[in-house]
Amino acid sequence: MKVIKIFLIVGMALLSVSCDKWLDVKPQSQLDRDDLFSSENGYSDALIGVYAELCDGSLYGRELTYGALDVMAGYYDKGNMMGEFPYLYQYLYKKDNTNKQDYVINIIDAFWSKIYTQIANLNAMLQTIDGNKNLFSGENYNVIKGEAIGLRAFLHFELLRMFGEPYAKDKDAESIPYVDEFTTSVTRLYTVDEIITLVLKDLETAKGLLENDPIHLGTTPSTVLASKVTVDANNNIYAWHNRRFHFNYYAAIATMARVYLWKGDKANALSKALEVIAAQEEKFPWVIAGNLMNIGSDKISDKIQDATFATEHIFALNATKLETLSDGYLYGGQGSLLLTDRSIYPSSFDYRYKNLFKILDGTTLYVTRKYESLSNVSAAFKNRIPMIRISEMYYIAAECEGDGTLATDYLNAVRNNRGLTAEKLENLTPDLLKNEIFKEYQKEFYGEGQLWYYYKRTLAPTIEANKNYFTSIDLYTFDRPENEDAYRF
To answer: 385 pairs with which residues across the strands?
Structure first.
């Protein structure tokens, strides 16, 4: 049986509550782990450490959002790209390509190694949590355990979307290991279909444990479960707001919707998407148009700037170093990731067109404001990296609903809250509906890495902006790192 070696970087250190701290795991240091996991705060700190590492520029702090994945999805002007990005744009990362670029391959290899390291950290927590149940008060044990299991499933699915074949292409192909215990033992490669099954199983377990998640109940989280937030009902900021920045009850359901859609199981994808949509008005209210008017202003009085539509986030990361991570890529005058125009937004009434871009000084090129981090902006809205947002649930519902009128209504629900109330979609044929959903993915997920996955899931035969380089759907599947395959036999 083929197996794979996962290299773990393991050990534990107590952490603070921001993404500028990190968790390091050393297998030889059982004493460190015992010390960390001697209180419920220790488990909370360990989770925060995982989120902190996910904020790294090699992961969601850049490459898996506005960096590598969006470059390959064809968003940016290739003439202004610098560094590794022109080579990513040309897909020079397959190991059988004679023109491959090693430093581009290293970027992709880091997705594998760093995400599996965080999976190891989660498993280290889960290995001890049942034996320490007496340390927890209230619902903290169930919520923290559910959060860890759910995040582990989420991260495995992320790896599958990168390193596994598209489900529609070959569901029986070997893909990745599913590592659900803290161990240095080899873990075999599972097929795409097997990984889907394991992910869904973990997500169902997580959902059950997260039943009393404060974001689900609408209650104030304990300090163990989330940092406090200043309630601002006028701007839809409530006591549970910071549970968005943890893998929560609704994140488990929303991820299931994603997974079922990846599998092509539209009935279950629709069911899960609608389960989240049912809570949308109370838990994930649409962005307030007035909160977009002052984006980019550094006036103290303009502190309410919701550039990422934070109230719509089902799951997000709090990246406290986002300004540093984006400098030289999106901001700071260098601007290697730029749009020559905003043609993907055909309407000037679209909030995403009007409010989320600016002209780079002295040029005719556009740079996104989505991740611009100004010191005057309220903490409830700054340094946010969306991982799952409510609009995606509406797009999934639109794609999976068999009734064309209802499907169009789901699409219009998002468009109405993007300033397009006067441009209602009606009487769409199935092909036109599919095209409108695609266009919404282009507009909505700029800077978030999700368009690349849309192309892969749908087996798009070409990526228009990159059509001279994208020559085969085989390019959608990243190669596993060479040092991983070296341990298979």
So the answer is: 317
